[in-house]
Amino acid sequence: MSTKDMFSTKFDPQHGNAVSVAPGVMRVTCGNTGPFTFQGTNSYILGEDVLAVIDPGPEDEAHLETLLQAIGGRNVSHIVITHTHIDHSPLAANLKGRTGAKIVGAAPHFAARELHLGEINALDASADRNYKPDDILNDGQRVHGIGWTLEAIATPGHTANHLSFALTDTGIVFTGDHIMAWATSIVAPPDGSMSQYMASLDKMLARDDRIYFPGHGGPVNNPKQFVRGLKTHRKMRERAILERLSKGDETIPEMVRQIYRNTDPRLHGAAGLSVFAQLEALVDKGLVSCDGDPSLEKRFKLIESID
């Protein structure tokens, strides 16, 4: 699979309806469409008699009512959170109030590193700082219901607290925003870390899963091949950055204009954050230099030849 052809935007969200995607698994897609959320946030409902809801989504009354209709008065034991962005976790508190379920999963929002002096968190508004879990799940910990068990897989990178969840004995993994069929995940310091993201891809590649259900868009039906493609895609971006540096580009806007010249300009801000994440990793590797701590406004220079 070439990186050009690996992503798929074929997806029917069926807003306002619960869609069966696997035995005992329903998907409800919120109507919060946009350049970063695609066709909206996917919430998943697991089980038959006692249910779990994965990523209830943003504060959206219509989405809450669709979830409650799909639940149909059945007991909800757990609300499971992959990470604390405002399109994934804020509705948890409201849904807990309506169902009595426990909120479990990701830790409260935190950054992969502290802000450098004078640095501004460009995605600060995207963090759900009101999120309060009843139980935090760490890597390998499980949560059980009648007929289902979810196992937490620590997959930091998109955010420092990101978890994926394997539905045991099915080959199904709910990957949140870590791996999606329609696009690569945004990795933006200080909340995100490219080094952690790549390590999390390696972790998923070592598994033998059958299908991924992501937080946005349709499923990934060939996980190993797709993850290999994601790694290749990121390595190509890294090489493109090194090539721009070798040609004299020193600032992130200069690099974005060239590397992402065929990308929707509305996404150039996010692209700049991704370039920053990769530059931060390249500085850590000793391939690129920066005057002081890396930041979006700094100038970067190549240390080693890329020949």
UniProtKB/TrEMBL annotation:
UniProt-listed Pfam families: Lactamase_B (PF00753), WHD_BLACT (PF17778)
Residues annotated as domain Metallo-beta-lactamase: 40-216
SMART domains: Lactamase_B
CDD domains found in the cross-reference section: metallo-hydrolase-like_MBL-fold
PANTHER family xrefs: ENDORIBONUCLEASE LACTB2 (PTHR23131:SF0)
Record's protein name: Beta-lactamase
